[in-house]
Amino acid sequence: MSARRSRVALLGFGTVGSAVGRRFAAGIPGLALTHILDRRAALKRARHPELAAAAWTTSVADVLQSDADIVVEAIGGFDPAAGWIDAALAAGKSVVTANKQVIARDGARLLQVAERQGRQLRFEAAVGGAMPIVRALADGLAGDRLTRIVAILNGTTNAVLSQMEASGCALDVALAAARARGLAEADPSADLDGDDARAKLAIVCALAFGIRVDPEGIPMRSCAALEPRDFAAARRNGGTIRQIARAEFDAARAVLAASVGPEIVPRSSIFARTIGPDNAALIVGEHSGETGIFGVGAGGDATAVAIVGDLIAIARDRAAIVPAPHLTSNFSLSTSTFPSEAVC
Amino acid sequence: MSARRSRVALLGFGTVGSAVGRRFAAGIPGLALTHILDRRAALKRARHPELAAAAWTTSVADVLQSDADIVVEAIGGFDPAAGWIDAALAAGKSVVTANKQVIARDGARLLQVAERQGRQLRFEAAVGGAMPIVRALADGLAGDRLTRIVAILNGTTNAVLSQMEASGCALDVALAAARARGLAEADPSADLDGDDARAKLAIVCALAFGIRVDPEGIPMRSCAALEPRDFAAARRNGGTIRQIARAEFDAARAVLAASVGPEIVPRSSIFARTIGPDNAALIVGEHSGETGIFGVGAGGDATAVAIVGDLIAIARDRAAIVPAPHLTSNFSLSTSTFPSEAVC
User: Fold this and answer.
1) How far is CA B239 from CA B232, B235, B263, B266, in A?
2) Which domains, ranges and CATH numbers included, belong to chain A?
3) Contact call for residues B258 and B237 (beta carbons, < 8 A)
4) Is it the case that residue B2 has pLDDT exceeding 50?
5) Pairing mode, if any, of strands A278-285 and A31-37?
6) Whole-angstrom Cα distance, residue A26 to residue B52?
7) Which residues, in sequence order, are bridge partners of residue A97?
8) Is the pLDDT of residue A340 over 60?
9) Cβ-based contacts of A134 with chain B (< 8 Å)
10) Rounded mean pLDDT of chain B?
């Protein structure tokens, strides 16, 4: 490990950014938080005297021209985050991001930019919160040929659906409860409709199968119209309802079947047992059989664990290569394979 | 990735080694199997014409003096494996091993040797078979302070106990069935007594808590005396019996509580649902809450997935640093904390 501490610039001081800030305020060996960008930098700086040693700014140019080694992108959304990640890599900085939209659409190219620059782009936080599925797919199970992933990838929707199951309440009541717990945005449509899970599923497909999937091409059905009677019907059949993201790749035929939407899952399954903001994934490989992983999939603290882990990985080996995958687009996406147990 | 394929020497052609050999025979991009050491090299070479391109030998000197870049140690046991790993690192080779005894007792020192040599020592296969728990602890959850691990780490014992639960049979009957499936050695005492799980738990403690635990100091109770009536009694209380390895580290007090032995687990728990040779682990962190992982924990094919994953990691970044942990021995091991639900 280098004697000098790695200097970290944080872009965005919302739910995730402020959780990362708390970790730095408590101290992270080998790392120092030197810059914080936020639209309301002055206000937030005043509220966070424990982070007064950092240079607070509203200007990304200040960060790009700084001596920061690593940029943490915690803004979310595609614009301006994608451009700022690009610019940070071009400026010779490594980047850690929680941004599923950017990685789903642009991850392979950005990894190539990072590799050319001799820098790293890491994104464990983009899928699954603290659940380390990115490393499980990219490293732990890299020695297998993976064939199928079935997963709960959206903590907000899972909190809503598991609450409907537990209390029999209507969706808007469960949504209000999730908002009160800080688990849902003012506009939850990206979560309930499935756009968020589609972006994460596209990242999973790149890591697991080496294929480039347009998230918007993945068949999707919304959970927004689910009613208590749907849960009652599922219960009569020994199941419950979860938002399931699934992808199955037939490498020999080069066919991907993928979907995101509400499905009836058996009450004994790992998915029925996944409640609140948790995420879960079943990963099937030719040689490893079935591997599972689950954990807290949403919230600032869980996401910050993944970000800090990526920062530590960069700080301890600044010359490490995060391989840029050569993703193939040479496959067909089967759109007629929504599972029969799907509801709505 | 380097244009030249990384050259791999395989030490030991038993259950694990031959599974690795099958993967090479099918082809692994970027890697070539160039040397195979086995006590019965001539016999096994004759039986494996698909691996005739490799140089088969009975002499470790042939491997150490060869141009192999990476040595896979798949012999098992402490001697001579530990000395051969040391010698391979000294000869400038990276090492991938499935050897829990060597890593539990000597892993930190060997990682330092590897780092000094500018080489890598990787050991995902030493714990959990295909279940990628080493990377989950060392990388994925490195951004948290972990406090507790509860796990099933011995696939043989789990196959025996879950069979006793399912069929009501005696232990020796379940053991014979496990042997017939290739899941138990002629002498299963290291599995049933808990020595195997203790070694793996010591590795887990090093990765999760940064502490050096002597496996033989971990309190252990054997599963060898379990009887059908123990399972019947557990069932009446809504549970079943599994061999549980647990470790809880109180960093503030520098106290580790650890144990391996049969415990009554609730039938709804992840451990009761872990059957056959599967492994499972619940990992608790201050910021990440509870993360779980499960998968096939024993058998040649599953172990080979972990080994091949480590080989791929080395081949794609030969200069990567696998951090040598600075383990503290400055803690006390609480030996009076065997959980109350423990049986036998």
Assistant:
1) 9, 5, 10, 4
2) 6-122 (3.40.50.720), 133-297+329-334 (3.30.360.10)
3) no
4) no
5) unpaired
6) 57
7) A73
8) no
9) 140
10) 94
CA distance A45 to B152: 47
Taking any CB pair shorter than 8 Å as contact, residues of chain A touching chain B are 1, 23, 124, 130-132, 134-136, 139-144, 285, 287-296, 301-302, 304-313, 316-317, 319-321, 323
Q: Are A188 and A315 in contact (CB under 8 A)?
A: no
A316, B302: Cβ pair inside 8 Å?
no
The rounded distance, in Å, linking the Cα atoms of A260 and A282 is 15
A186, B17, B128, B308 from B24: Cα distances, Å: 53, 11, 22, 9
- Phi, psi for B318 (deg, rounded to 5): -70, -20
Residue B178 C-beta-side C-alpha neighbours within 13 Å: 32
Per-residue pLDDT for A339 more than 90?
Answer: no
User: What distance in Å separates residue A335's CA from the closest CA in chain B?
Assistant: 30
**Maximal CA-CA distance, chain B:** 62
Closest to A299 measured CA to CA, from A61, A2, A8, A22: A22
Apex CA A260: angle with CA A212 and CA A174, to 5°? 140
| Two structure tokens written together for B14 | 């038993």
On the 0-12 / 13-18 / 19+ scale of CB atoms within 10 A, A125 is: buried
How distant is the Cα of B311 from the closest Cα of chain A, in angstroms? Answer: 8
Express each pLDDT in B215-258 by its tens digit.
999 999 999 999 999 999 999 999 999 999 999 999 999 999 99
Is A202 in contact with A213 (CB distance < 8 Å)?
Answer: yes
Tokens of B279: 């492994």
User: Which residue among A124, A144, A293 places its CB closest to the CB of B305?
Assistant: A144
Interface residues of B toward A, Cβ cutoff 8 Å, are 1, 23, 124, 130-132, 134-136, 139-144, 285, 287-296, 301-302, 304-313, 316-317, 319-321, 323
Of A142, A293, A317, the CB nearest to B293: A293
- From residue A4, give the alpha-carbon distance in Å to each of A315, B35, B154: 10, 42, 42
Q: Where residue A4 falls among pLDDT bands split at 50, 70, 90?
A: confident
Q: Kindly list the residues from chain B whose CB atom is less than 8 angstroms away from the CB atom of residue A23.
A: 143, 287
Instruction: For residues B335 and A225, give the distance between their C-alpha atoms in angstroms, rounded to a whole number.
Output: 55
Kind plus residue range of the DSSP H or E element containing A8: strand A6-11
| Confidence bin at B344 (pLDDT 50/70/90) | very low
At B331 the three-state DSSP class reads coil
The tokens describing B193, both together, are: 């007594």
Q: Looking up tokens 């005396």, which residue turns up?
A: B225
Task: Write down how long chain A is.
Answer: 344
User: Rounded to an integer, what is the distance from CA A282 to the centroid of its chain?
Assistant: 16
Nearest to B184 by CA among B193, B196, B175: B175
Rounded (5°) CA angle B276-B282-B284? 175
CA distance B69 to B57: 17
Residue B245 Cα, gap to closest chain A Cα (Å)? 19
